[in-house]
Write a structure and sequence with these properties.
The chain is mostly beta strands. It is 9% helix and 47% strand. It has 2 domains: 246 residues, tricorn interacting facor f3 domain (Immunoglobulin-like); 203 residues, Immunoglobulin-like (Sandwich). β6 and β7 form a beta hairpin. It is globular. The chain contains 4 helices and 33 strands.
């Protein structure tokens, strides 16, 4: 973690957090009237929309070559979504496909009044695009709660099928000269999908090759063009949705320790059971370990030399877990108290400790820098989506001049606040940075959260001084009390 040299560049443009709350770190949202329509200053010369439904969430990537058809330079590109869609969009990022070093573009959420049926993400180009010039954008985002099971109820040993609804034409606020849409399913078992007439090269869309289906290429389509289609595919895995994740990171200078704790409220959004769960049938099938849509275990990769891992639910400690610690990585393997089927809820808590030397450094110019993952969580082949995430970084008492930087997409951060967190042996309470995000997925595991802060000398020694003073006062009181004569002398005659 050699990031000390990068601190001036990372934090020079960020304001100091000095109050209990601050708006400068919150997601930028621009209010526009419902009559707003993006000016027709761009054209999509060529567009490829890749929709990956290989995990429990949909990942969408739009690679488009945009052309400025206006007479003046332009730097604002809009992407439309329906009201329902935009509430489930997360992790929105835009890059220059031909220049990876350009970094993510600035993105804002555009909000209309309640009567507006269409909402927009506004993409700010790093430099205005000159008239007639072209630029290739790579737009990536995720859709949570993207599927519905069909059938909605199945037996516990039946395969699970999900339905994904989408538009064959990519959402666009501009005319698109040429486009195609690719669907990437988790397997070739796709029994039902929407078919439509092809072109001179293909008699029927989609062209199917294994688990990949391609609609198009299509000729010019106007802005807002839409053609609804559905795909029904086998997904015999858990559909994991975390409605609430609270992640606490507590830093101790005196103990040389960073303590992590994560509290989950997890749902399985797959098909419900058509009959009562049979424990006997479940145990019988475990001998040959068949494919199942039930959740049987969760694996949490942790940093090397993590220690003291624990795992419990609302009932208490769960012994069906295994913690392995190696030189390069630690792994916490957990098994829920019972298999989790569609429609079932499972709240649980995990935690562990780690050496502060792995995450905490002294900055060159003074102060401290903490570098931890913003999101860790289980690493599952089927993927995990998160609706609401609260990351609480509890710093030592007296910490001030707090700044943070994270590689989590800016549009996913809803707020960042500083509060006082009081716990055992505290005097005035510890400074806590609380960051809230929404609609994240496990693709963002291990993206950095860097926090810089100062601890004044007096604040750093306040606690040991108070502990020493308390113990000294206790000994003095014990000595004084010990010297008092409590014996009742006999009455003299």
């Amino acid at each position: 973690m050699q990031f000390a040299a990068l601190l001036p560049a990372l934090f020079s443009c960020l304001p100091v957090i000095a109050a209990a709350s601050f708006d400068s770190f919150q997601t930028s949202k621009i209010a526009l009237p419902s009559t707003f329509k993006p000016p027709q200053v761009f054209k999509n010369a060529n567009l490829v929309h890749i929709r990956s439904i290989e995990k429990a969430y949909a990942k969408e990537t739009i690679n488009t070559k945009i052309e400025n058809i206006a007479n003046d330079p332009q730097d604002e590109y809009y992407l439309p979504f329906t009201v329902d869609q935009i509430s489930r969009v997360g992790g929105f990022e835009v890059k220059d496909k031909k220049n990876a070093d350009a970094g993510p573009f600035l993105v804002d959420v555009v909000e209309f009044d309640a009567d507006s049926a269409i909402q927009y993400y506004r993409i700010k180009l790093p430099e205005p695009l000159k008239a007639g010039a072209e630029q290739t954008l790579s737009i990536t985002y995720y859709i949570t709660d993207a599927y519905r099971p069909l059938p909605a109820t199945i037996a516990q040993d039946e395969p699970q099928f999900l339905v994904y609804t989408f538009s064959v034409y990519s959402p666009s606020a501009y005319t698109t000269s040429k486009q195609k849409t690719e669907i990437r399913a988790p397997s070739a078992n796709v029994p039902d999908y929407t078919k439509m007439p092809g072109n001179v090269d293909v008699s029927e869309f989609p062209a199917k090759s294994g688990s990949k289906m391609t609609y198009g290429p299509f000729d010019e389509k106007p802005a807002g063009a839409e053609e609804i289609a559905t795909v029904r595919f086998e997904f015999n895995k858990p559909v994991l949705h975390v409605t609430e994740l609270e992640r606490d990171i507590e830093v101790s200078h005196w103990g040389g320790n960073v303590a992590f704790e994560e509290r989950y409220t997890m749902y399985h959004r797959g098909a419900n059971l058509s009959t009562l769960f049979s424990r006997v049938k479940w145990q019988q099938t475990q001998y040959y370990n068949p494919s199942t849509f039930a959740l049987k275990e969760l694996n949490f990769p942790l940093s090397a030399d993590s220690a003291d891992a624990y795992y419990y639910d609302v009932i208490g400690n769960i012994s069906t877990s295994r913690f392995r610690n190696g030189k390069n990585e630690a792994l916490l393997q957990t098994k829920p108290r019972y298999p989790i089927f569609g429609g079932w809820k499972y709240p649980f808590t995990i935690g562990w400790n780690a050496d502060a030397k792995k995450f905490l450094r002294r900055a060159t110019g003074g102060g401290y820098v903490l570098n931890v993952p913003f999101l860790e969580g289980p690493k599952q082949p089927e993927g995990v989506e998160y609706e609401n995430v609260v990351v609480r970084v509890v710093l030592p008492e007296g910490a001030e001049n707090i700044k943070y930087y994270t590689r989590i997409p800016r549009t996913a951060i809803t707020s960042a606040d500083v509060e006082i967190h009081k716990t055992y042996l505290d005097t005035v309470g510890r400074t806590a940075l609380i960051i809230k995000a929404y609609n994240l997925v496990d693709d963002f595991r291990d993206r950095e959260l860097i926090v810089s802060y100062d601890v004044p000398f007096f604040a750093s020694i306040r606690k040991p001084l108070i502990v020493f003073g308390s113990m000294f006062a206790t000994f003095i009181a014990a000595y004084v009390i010990g010297g008092v004569e409590f014996k009742i002398s006999p009455k003299s005659k």
